[in-house]
Design goal:
The complex is a heterodimer of chains A (244) and B (262).
Chain A: E1 5-10, H1 14-39, E2 43-45, E3 57-60, H2 84-112, H3 115-118, H4 122-126, H5 128-136, H6 148-171, H7 174-179, H8 181-187, H9 190-218, H10 220-229, E4 231-235, H11 238-243
Antiparallel strand pairs in A: 1-4, 2-3
Chain B: H1 2-34, H2 39-58, H3 87-94, E1 101-106, E2 112-115, H4 116-121, E3 125-132, E4 138-147, H5 148-155, E5 163-175, E6 178-187, H6 188-191, E7 197-202, E8 205-206, E9 216-218, E10 231-237
Parallel strand pairs in B: 1-10
Antiparallel strand pairs in B: 1-2, 3-4, 4-7, 5-6, 5-10, 7-8, 7-9
The chains are: A mainly alpha (244), B alpha+beta (262).
Chain lengths: 244, 262
């Protein structure tokens, strides 16, 4: 599975490592407070409003408007008791942290050209089926550059899901709706935005699970070192790997 | 390789530390639930000021989206108190609101006492808007009422007035310290927004009891809990000291953000 170890190379810049860990902490609290908020009305709809006299629900996780236990268990919410008010306070605090870091990161990635390390090229797409087959056999490459699937995952999260979460989050704000009603038109209404915010969350959780699984398979200590110190050990034959 | 081993140690210690911090972080955050004065909570609540400032600069005076009659597909879902049990309220309702008055006082040059007929005789605004509850749901309805700015022009707020406080007739809580009536407040900018109205009509009929009869507030760019129902008085105030627990609204006193534009 592993090729001969090659040299240590500098993989992650300080900016990448800092943003990674700030995001990790912020997303942890955003997820658990978000589930607290969801418990207050665990029904998702499509459109501008919520149908009570008609049905436009797309997902019912529990009975709406019931006091007491929501469908999300208390171990998966912050605070652990039913507390929408505190959940919202913590959620919006970390939403600001998350959004501010995202804006800084996007600006820096565009300015420095780092985005080119993440967005799949035509060559990546051609190599995609082989990369999928290699992953299926757990034959993981540790090259200088990211592989096609890695690029798709990281670009999808950084340029796709992260901005989607900010946009759908803002689209639930009645004040922001007044400032930018076109966002509602784009997303299909406030309740659609809420549903998409939930779907984006599910996508991020799926990414997290795969991300952790891949780190476990690809050498957790080496990759943790990479995201803490910036240095990572790559395969000895990585140059030929890269050229194949 | 020694460098590698110490790094591993560092990473393990770091990982364990991060895990412990996260676990204790959850415990600490549970404490925020019980203690509104918790220092960490006060830091996090600063985000609400930031949100308010951002909304002021980004949204400014922009209007909330308005809808058409065709978008009204259901009755208006009521929330909070839907049938006040207070004897005073019941008596006023039984009398067809003939004895009801909206008092306007506090830091004003000209205190007012308006009957429902007088409120209804003022220039009206009708708007079809989406009501967003803090719980997460939305409901579209048509509202008719007098712009609050009109009432403010009549009562002439004094220079020291910073907030408009709304007093309500409904008792929302019976606590050991007595009965707690609902109250809410807005800053003057939101109070003077053209869509901020004192509504007496809903979906083409008189405002029903469950939705706040005879008069309720509509603040279309904020969440439902700002839109006090069963109004009895409006006060211009400089701050919230001595009003409830001093955070400016019934729900703010119970941990919700005072600015509810998000």
């Amino acid at each position: 599975m592993h090729r001969p170890a090659g040299p240590l190379v500098r993989r992650q810049t300080l900016a990448t490592r800092l943003t990674h860990w700030v995001w990790a902490v912020a997303l942890f609290f955003l997820l658990l407070t978000g589930l607290q908020i969801l418990n207050a009305h665990p029904v998702l709809y499509w459109g501008a409003e919520s149908g009570f006299d008609y049905d436009n629900a797309v997902l019912r996780l529990g009975a709406a408007g019931k006091e007491g236990a929501g469908p999300i268990p208390s171990w998966a919410t912050i605070p652990s008791t039913r507390d929408l008010a505190t959940g919202r306070v913590i959620h919006f605090f970390f939403a600001w942290v998350f959004g501010a870091v995202l804006v800084l990161w996007l600006a820096a990635a565009l300015w420095s050209g780092h985005w080119r390390d993440l967005v799949p090229t035509r060559a990546d797409l051609r190599a995609l089926s082989r990369d999928v087959a290699d992953h299926a056999r757990l034959r993981l490459h540790h090259g200088r550059a990211y592989g096609p699937l890695q690029k798709l995952a990281y670009a999808g999260v950084l340029f796709g899901l992260f901005p989607l979460m900010v946009l759908t989050g803002l689209a639930m704000s009645p004040s922001f709706n007044a400032a930018a009603p076109w966002v509602l038109d784009l997303l299909g209404g406030r309740q659609s935005a809420r549903t998409l915010h939930f779907a984006g969350m599910a996508g991020l959780v799926a990414f997290f699970v795969i991300h952790i699984a891949m780190i476990g398979l690809a050498g957790p200590l080496n990759l943790m070192r990479s995201m803490v110190t910036g240095w990572t050990r790559i395969d000895a034959d990585t140059e030929s790997d890269h050229a194949r | 390789m020694p460098a590698d081993i110490s790094r591993r140690r560092l990473i393990r210690a770091g990982g364990a530390g991060l895990g412990l911090m996260t676990l204790s972080g959850c415990k600490v955050l549970d404490a925020l639930s019980r203690d509104l004065d918790h220092p960490l909570r006060q830091v996090m609540e600063e985000a609400n000021r930031l949100t308010h400032a951002a909304a002021r600069s980004v949204t400014g005076d922009a209007l909330a989206p308005e809808f058409t009659r065709a978008d009204i597909r259901q009755g208006m879902k009521p929330n909070g108190v839907t049938d006040p049990a207070d004897a005073g309220y019941k008596a006023l309702a039984a009398g067809g609101w003939a004895d009801w008055r909206l008092t306007v006082g506090g830091l004003v040059d000209r205190p007012l006492s308006l009957s429902l007929a007088e409120v209804q005789a003022m220039p009206a605004r009708t708007q079809i808007t989406r009501h967003d509850c803090v719980e997460g749901w939305s409901c579209i309805a048509e509202w008719t009422g007098v712009p609050l700015s009109r009432v403010l022009d009549l009562c002439r707020p004094q220079p020291g007035a910073r907030y408009v406080l709304f007093r309500c007739m409904d008792t929302i809580e019976r606590s050991l310290s007595g009965l707690v009536q609902y109250h809410e407040s807005l800053d003057l900018a939101e109070a003077r927004h053209p869509q901020t109205i004192l509504a007496y009509g809903m979906n083409g009929a008189a405002l029903p009891v469950r939705n706040g009869a005879p008069l309720r507030l509509r603040v279309e760019r904020q969440l439902g809990y700002k839109m006090a129902k069963y109004l009895t008085g409006i006060e211009l105030v400089a701050g919230f000291d001595g009003i409830g627990r001093g955070r400016g609204s019934y729900w703010a006193d119970r941990g919700y953000d005072w600015y509810a534009g998000i």
